[in-house]
Structures are given as structure tokens and as C-alpha cells.
Input
Amino acid sequence: MLNDALAAAVLDVERHVGQRGWDQPTRLFALVPTAELLAAAPELAAQLGEDHPQGHLSSIEQEDFHHGLPLFEALAHLAWPPTVAGCVLSVERAFLPAQYESDLPEDFDEAGEAVANHPQRQELRLVTGVLRTGDRHAVARVRSDPTQLLGGEDLAPGLSTALLATLGD
Output
């Protein structure tokens, strides 16, 4: 079942990140219930507005995320306080159409270099969100066709699982 608040938060983050164009670093956002955020910081009401549906989530960018570590290693070192209901991660990646994948070297670094230099390389922005409840949702936008937005609960299972681990006790 799709969690509407999570899907809305993921779409909001994708739009926010997309406003700065492409070639961005990985960006991480905490998700907090808007009602709780406004109760703790009422001065944000003017910025956030006052008309939010029940369960609405606000995203708060974590400016200090990543520090040059490989993504999954950085996520493995991350833990959220109980006030954070979930998180959203935006990453940009290059990939090859399926017919070229068998030509890639087995070595991870060499494969990455081959993809980066391949003339049929495609680029996408993947925005993945999860909640402590286990709900997950992701959207992807391909750079060559920015009008298309793909979405679903199972779009990025490995990344969703890694994000969920950051919310564990």
C-alpha cells in the first residue's frame, strides 16, 4: 500500500533537488511530521504554511552528509533520533541500457569507469524515501527525458533497505 505522505515527501524532494539542475552531489533529508515540527518551532509556520493534511511530512536537508565516503558506507554510519519519522536520499547515477551491460568489466571500479565513458551512457536522478514503519517509495527521472518520472515502492530495493537500516534502534 502506498503511503501518501511519503510519496508526497519524495516528490517534493525530487522537485526541490531538480530546481538546481543536474550534476549534484548526493543529498539526504530527514522526514519529520509537520505538526510536530510546527509545535517545536512555531516560527516556521510562515515558511511552511498552515494548511497541511493529517500526517504531512516535512523534509529537512542534512547539509553535512557524505563527506566523501562511498554511499553505502556513509549510510552504515548514520543513525537518526526518534523524532525523525523517515528519510529521503537523492542520488544521480549513470547506467547503460541492458544490451551493453554484458560488456562491462567484472571489477567494480573498472565497470564504473567504463559506464562513465560509454557513448550510450544514460543518467538518472533517483530519489528514495523510507519511513520507520517500513514504507518505501522512490522516483526516478532520466536526464535525456526529464518529462518522464517513474515511481514505485520497489524501484530501489537495495537503497531502500540501506536507508531503513539508518532508522533502526
Summary: The CA atoms of residues 124 and 133 lie 27 Å apart. The chain has one domain: 4-166. The beta strands are 27-33, 57-61, 86-95, 122-131, 136-142, 150-152.
